[in-house]
Specification:
single chain, alpha/beta, Rossmann fold, Beta-Lactamase, 4 domains, five-stranded parallel β-sheet, five-stranded mixed β-sheet, rod-shaped
């Protein structure tokens, strides 16, 4: 229908002047007109749009009404097209022939000739008013249809299932969407049959919520489980809106079921993930805090180690003239004065204890010089069994568990023996009333921590059944000078030395303890297939080797006291000594023509150290032996291949070192005069 034609008048009056007169009257009343020359033209005009049609009786009686009847039958539901039928003798009562026309036209108003213009205009306006009401009904139907389509589209957009119930909540009539969802037919879902599709646990909660919404006349919102037509249980969100009548009472409910199974599963997964993430964050935070604590502890121990190493180096230099002087005094005067000999011996023993203390400090600081070689741990511990038994006493039960075919490890056997003995003595002190001490060896394929190489290891575990340590004590167990023993029963360096030795050997140290249960200490050492060359041992029996011949020695040391004491030792051995206070002075003397058989030099000196001096001499005098003496017992750079003697040393030590260096095959030894 063309909108601007919707209120025009169509006129079918092919005979006489009816069409012309009617058009003039309607035009006068501002009603547009169109005169149709035939019935077919009239039908086409009605299809295009019109408010009503004025037709004469004779024009219809003379023509076939089939096209008109077909159009009227096919008009939309809202349409009831109005006709004004002009007759000669009025309505059906006076004109029976018009009855057939009434049956075809339907909505007819009769106008009898001759008609007054006012009557025609009145009938025309009445027909237009009726047609306008039809147009309004059309608009309302269109709006209702559009609303319904929008609603259905919205339901489909959220993948919802649409249904209706009466005011009491009973399902009535055909519910196609509900049937498609649940498989229930009309008979199954009628009344409250729809609840049979609900999960048994959800029936009563659903009905209770429904009754409450009905009583309060508000929107029903709920969530429950339904069995779908394929037999699966799925979760649906339900929303039903009440429709009210004019009296304000609920007429029916229009509801939608929306499948939220996947959404709820996703939400649950997110909740689980959130909980997992929270736990992971807590664990990561704890791990980070633990790593930070360990880092701070490692940094603290490293700082203490650096300080300890420096102090030990200086302490060695301080001990050197003391030890040398006491050694010379003992040999010179010890045989003449018993009291003096006893005092000197006590002083030497104290100096020796100080030397051991320094060695332990260096062990903690990982700066001691190690004589590493391949060690069979089972054999080493078997050889220590009697020593350990005598050290721990008769109240301690010793158990040793050594499997066969353990691989060799790379270690300094003497330092390792000392470390194991320290652990056993600590275990003894933790069991004052007796107990059990277990020493275990086991082969481990992987590294104990990620920062160590993944090669093989042998683990030494020393376990006691003693008092154990609490967390605070355990945290400080490897700190130097920390001890829980009473004064005089320990220096607090035992575990520190073992901890430092493990790190210096490329291994791992671990300790675990429980108060009242005991303590377990583990020492992991790397496996080796071969051993490096063993280093020279210092003399420890006080016997002084007799020099094969007197030597001219260039002695280089920046410490005056150390240089004086060392020079005195050398001269007493029969050697000639030329002193230099530094490497530069020594090189200058040699360039000036000084001829010597041996250079004895300190390592740590300002501007040029002993290793650099040795490299210069190797270029100019490659046949000149060099003995490096040092209070710094670490891995000194550039000292590879050089003979070394650690401070403090006694006369026998330096005598043996010199003889091994210049004439290793011609050495003889004689007892030191007055040796303790």
């Amino acid at each position: 229908m063309i909108p601007h034609l919707s209120e025009r008048a169509l006129i079918l009056a092919p005979h006489g002047r009816d069409a012309q007169v009617a058009s003039a009257i309607l035009a006068e009343a501002s009603i547009r007109c169109f005169a149709s020359p035939s019935l077919d033209t009239l039908v086409a005009g009605m299809e295009a749009g019109a408010g009503f049609a004025l037709v004469t009786e004779e024009s219809l009686l003379e023509a076939s009404l089939r096209p008109l009847s077909d159009w009227l039958e096919a008009q939309p539901e809202w349409s009831d097209f109005p006709f004004i039928l002009v007759t000669r003798r009025g309505g059906i009562e006076r004109n029976p022939a018009s009855a057939r026309l009434l049956a075809v036209l339907g909505n007819v108003t009769f106008l009898e000739r001759p008609f007054h213009p006012t009557t025609l205009v009145s009938l025309a306006k009445s027909a237009l008013r009726g047609r306008r009401r039809q147009y309004e009904a059309r608009a309302r139907l269109a709006a209702l249809y559009d609303s319904e389509q929008r609603f259905r589209a919205a339901v489909q957009a959220v993948q919802g299932v649409l249904w209706t119930n009466n005011a009491q909540g009973e399902m009535e009539g055909e519910q196609a969407d509900w049937a498609g969802l649940t498989g229930q037919d009309t008979a199954d879902s009628a009344g409250f049959g729809w609840v049979k599709a609900l999960h048994p646990d959800d029936v009563q909660p659903t009905l209770a919520a429904w009754e409450k919404a009905r009583a309060e006349q508000r929107i029903f919102k709920f969530e429950h489980r339904l069995r779908t037509r394929d037999g699966a249980w799925r979760t649906f969100s339900v929303r039903a809106i009440p429709a009210f009548d004019r009296g304000g009472q609920i007429r029916e409910w229009v509801g939608v079921h929306t499948d939220v199974t996947d959404q709820r599963a996703t939400e649950q997964s997110l909740r689980d993930l959130t909980a997992t993430l929270e736990q992971r964050v807590i664990e990561e935070a704890a791990a980070r805090e633990d790593a930070t604590t360990k880092l701070h502890e490692a940094q603290k121990l490293e700082t203490i180690g650096q300080l300890t190493g420096g102090v030990a180096h200086d302490f060695n230099n301080l001990l050197m003239p003391i030890t040398g002087a006491l050694d010379m005094l003992q040999r010179r005067f010890g045989g003449d004065d018993e009291r003096a000999a006893r005092l000197i011996t006590n002083a030497l023993q104290s100096a020796e204890r100080a030397k051991i203390l320094v060695q332990r400090l260096l062990g903690f600081a990982r700066r001691q010089s190690l004589e590493t070689q391949a060690v069979e741990l089972a054999a080493l511990l078997d050889g220590m069994r009697d020593l350990i038994k005598s050290s721990v006493g008769p109240t301690i039960v010793l158990r040793a568990e050594f499997p066969a075919d353990l691989p060799q490890v790379l270690a300094d056997p003497h330092q390792l023996e000392l470390a194991i003995l320290n652990l056993c003595v600590n275990a003894r002190d933790a069991m004052p009333k007796g107990g059990t001490l277990v020493i275990e060896l086991s082969s481990m394929a992987s590294a104990p921590t990620p920062d160590l190489p993944g090669t093989g290891y042998v683990r030494i575990a020393v376990t006691d059944t003693g008092m154990g340590m609490d967390r605070e004590t355990l945290a400080r167990a490897v700190e130097p000078f920390f001890s829980t023993k009473e004064t005089g029963r320990g220096t607090g360096l035992g575990l520190s030395m073992v901890h430092g030795l493990a790190g210096q050997l490329g291994g791992h140290f671990a300790i675990d303890s429980t108060p009242g249960v005991g303590t377990r200490v583990e020492l992991w050492l790397p496996v080796t297939a071969s051993a490096p060359l063993a280093l020279r041992r210092d003399a420890d029996d006080g016997r002084v080797p007799t020099p094969a011949r007197p030597l001219d020695v260039l002695l280089v040391d920046d410490e005056q006291l150390v240089r004086d004491g060392t020079a005195a030792m050398l001269r007493e051995l029969g050697h000639g000594v030329v002193e230099a206070s530094g490497a530069g002075e020594a090189l200058e003397k040699l360039r000036d023509g000084l001829s010597v058989d041996l250079v004895v030099t300190d390592y740590k000196m300002p501007r040029m150290d002993g290793a650099e001096l040795a490299r210069h001499l190797r270029l100019s005098r490659p046949d000149l032996p060099v003995l490096l003496i040092t209070g710094y017992s670490g891995h000194a750079e550039g000292t590879r291949g050089l003979a070394r003697l650690g401070k403090p040393f006694r006369q026998a030590d330096i005598a043996m070192a010199i003889e091994e260096l210049v004439q290793p095959k011609q050495m003889q030894t004689v007892p030191a005069s007055g040796a303790a």
